[in-house]
Amino acid sequence: MDTSQDPGAVSALLTGKAPVQVWPPASLTPTSCLTATAAARPYPANTRIHPSRLRSSLWCLLTVTDCGEQVPVSAMSGEIKREARHPSPASMSGKDVRAEARNFSASLTNVFLMKQRRDPQTKHLLEKAQSLIDALLAESPRPPSATPSPRHQQKGGAGGMGQLWVKLDELKRENDDLKRQRARTAEEHAGSPKSPKSHTQPGQIEPVSQDVQKIKTENDLLKAQVDKLQNTIKEHQKINLSLQDEAKRSKVALEAAQKLAKKSREDCKRLEAALTTAKTGKEPVKQKPFKPSTPSSTAPPTPSQPASSSSNGPPIPTKPPSSNGPPTPSKPASSAHSAPPTPPKPSALTGSSKPSPRPRTDNRHTENIGEKCRPSNIAVAFTTLESQEWMDAKESLEDEEEEEDVLKFLCGILMSSYTVSNVILKSVENVISHVITNPTAAVNMISDEEAGQLPPLTAELSDIIGQKLRANYDKINTKDIVDLAQKNSGSACAANPHWSHPTVRKYALECSAVTWQMAIQKPPMRMSTVDSSFNSERHRLWWSCNHLNAKGIDFFIWPCLFDYEGGNLLMKGCVHAS
């Protein structure tokens, strides 16, 4: 029976007696046979048993048969005890050495069975030691059975076993070195220091817990990265919103700059044409001197009264004064701060001299670049007002009010400031006119009812007043204009609590400064919000409106700006149209 395929044969041998031959016999010498004897023999004789099925815990009685002599040997837990039955005195020592070698080989097999699942290197070393012992047993000459073993053969046998033990020690040291090297490699691979004693064997829970801990650590790191990326996304969204707002402002400023550039090119062309005309002598460059009227009880002539209306006939052209008389200065028409020219002496032919009409010093065809307060600079300030202060005030009120209400409120502030600025200028002219005609009235200022009955100022005096006001345009008290604008804006707008908001207050002050500069121009600049139908040449649509179906204007967001009443359009108005 082959017990290598039937594990029950080993346990069956414990209950019966039968001489069982151990398989495979390659570990035995050609002249030896290893058999096992039990108390009973329920199985056939010569049953083959594989050595791997035997354990050191079995208590077996082994009989070594060698040349007709039987030697009983008991083995337990890898320790071999030899008991000779009917020993031959002549061959005792040689047989003892061979029996010890065979028993040692069998004990190596038992050790291999215990170690093979734990360490493949130990398996290799044990197999190598067993093969060496078997080879030495095969090469060792068997002594004759009738004569005792020679002394030199006994010494040789003992020396061979000594070499085997030395070889076994070397193999053990190699095994230990390989174990240490393997443990060191595992530590380097794992990245954490471990000693060979604390090295985790396969099948234990420690590697699994370490992997779980490592995965948790990686998971925490990934969560931190995700949170960081989410915060970065939020920051990018905020930056994107701010960039969009800045892009809107830049777009508005670009449109205004393009319009201003276009207007500047047109003005430049007109100036070049005027210069060419002046060079050819078709248009006089210098203004004619005039004699201002002296105060008298009679009314002064109106500016529209021509000089040729004199009853004495057509006037004689004014000649330059002689060297004996005082020089008469002649200033260009564009001079902003020049004093009135010295009037010429009365001619003997005419008998008297009447004032000739004086052209306006701030004609729209030629701007006085010496003045800071001129229409082109005001247009730039008007554009900046929309792109900066108006945008800031709108953004500060968007969270508290509806968009339409905010837009109407801010536009109302601008138009109210413009109205108040014109009222202030008219009041100044009325006061000056009243003081000139009635100097004693300067002590007690006139009322509004009296102002409507006063005669208007002459064009010359109005031009002089305008020059002085433009020279001191930045000294106006804008806070008073804002207060008057709030009172004049209507009951609903005046009661709005947002007038005191910091950004709205700043916007209102800037509106007052810009509209005052518009009002003191001669003629005054004009803002308009009276159109009812959409016109692409004069209006631009709010971004939320439908550009294809825009017809009627719902309300103005930003007024139209003209050079003067009925003059050129400087900047389109922004409207909400449906």
Topology:
Elements: H1 8-13, E1 20-22, E2 32-37, E3 47-49, E4 60-66, E5 69-76, E6 79-82, H2 92-115, H3 120-139, H4 151-190, H5 206-280, H6 375-397, H7 403-437, H8 448-451, H9 459-471, H10 478-488, H11 491-494, H12 502-519, E7 526-528, E8 539-541, E9 553-558, E10 560-562, E11 569-571, E12 573-577
Parallel strand pairs: 1-3, 8-12
Antiparallel strand pairs: 1-2, 2-4, 4-5, 5-6, 7-10, 9-12, 10-11
Family: Belongs to the MIEAP family.
GO molecular function, one term: lipid binding
Biased composition (Pro residues): 314-330
Describe what this molecule looks like in 3D.
The protein is α+β, with helices and mostly antiparallel strands and 578 residues long. Among the domains are: 55-182, no CATH class; 375-577, no CATH class. 47% of the residues lie in helices and 9% in strands. The protein has twelve helices and twelve strands. It has helices spanning 8-13, 92-115, 120-139, 151-190, 206-280, 375-397, 403-437, 448-451, 459-471, 478-488, 491-494, 502-519; strands at residues 20-22, 32-37, 47-49, 60-66, 69-76, 79-82, 526-528, 539-541, 553-558, 560-562, 569-571, 573-577. The strands form three sheets. It has a six-stranded mixed beta sheet. A three-stranded antiparallel beta sheet has the order 7-10-11. A hairpin with a 2-residue loop joins strand 4 (60-66) and strand 5. The longest helix is centred in the middle third of the chain and has 75 residues, at 206-280. Residues 1-92, 144-158, 193-200 and 282-360 have low confidence and may be disordered.
